[in-house]
Task: inverse folding
């Protein structure tokens, strides 16, 4: 658990305790915005009564608390399979303050083809920064957990619609 750690306390050894590169990247991005000493957050907190998991428990990737005391449950996602999409739809209906942080799908914030980015890497970097800024706004109390949940629902629905067009193209091939 990493809670209210002072900015100067962070040394490489403490960062290495985080379990993977994604968590480290998110943590370092928040540290860069000077938020790690101003927010309670915890990696890998379990929540109960999740029907799709054995034992009805789900391991939430990140839980953050805003300055207003509002909690946000963050799911950090890579490749989106049909199973992951189904789980995310369920989780978004389960808790008011669920947020999906998608780090690999270049069509998450907006479809790649509708952007001006010359490379997928630059688009992915932009999407990461947008999502970090959204978490920063949450921590500062400038946006509610419910509003971030609404953004996640909209993005997931857009992603599903965009991918369904891929399926239609595959059927026509």
Result:
């Amino acid at each position: 658990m990493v809670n209210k750690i002072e900015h100067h306390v962070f040394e490489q050894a403490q960062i290495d305790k985080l379990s993977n590169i994604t968590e480290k990247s998110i943590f370092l991005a928040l540290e860069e915005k000077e938020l790690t000493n101003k927010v309670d957050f915890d990696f890998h907190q379990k929540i109960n009564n999740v029907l799709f998991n054995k034992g009805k428990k789900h391991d939430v990737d990140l839980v953050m608390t805003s300055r207003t005391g509002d909690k946000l449950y963050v799911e950090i996602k890579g490749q989106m399979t049909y199973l992951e999409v189904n789980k995310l739809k369920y989780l978004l209906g389960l808790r008011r303050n669920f947020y999906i942080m998608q780090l690999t799908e270049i069509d998450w914030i907006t479809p790649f083809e509708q952007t001006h980015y010359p490379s997928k890497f630059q688009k992915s970097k932009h999407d990461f920064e947008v999502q970090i800024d959204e978490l920063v706004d949450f921590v500062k109390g400038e946006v509610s957990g419910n509003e971030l949940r609404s953004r996640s629902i909209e993005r997931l629905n857009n992603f599903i619609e965009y991918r369904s067009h891929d399926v239609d193209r595959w059927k026509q091939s």
Remarks:
- The mean pLDDT is 76.
- The CA atoms of residues 66 and 164 lie 36 Å apart.
- Strands lie at 40-48, 57-65, 71-77, 98-102.
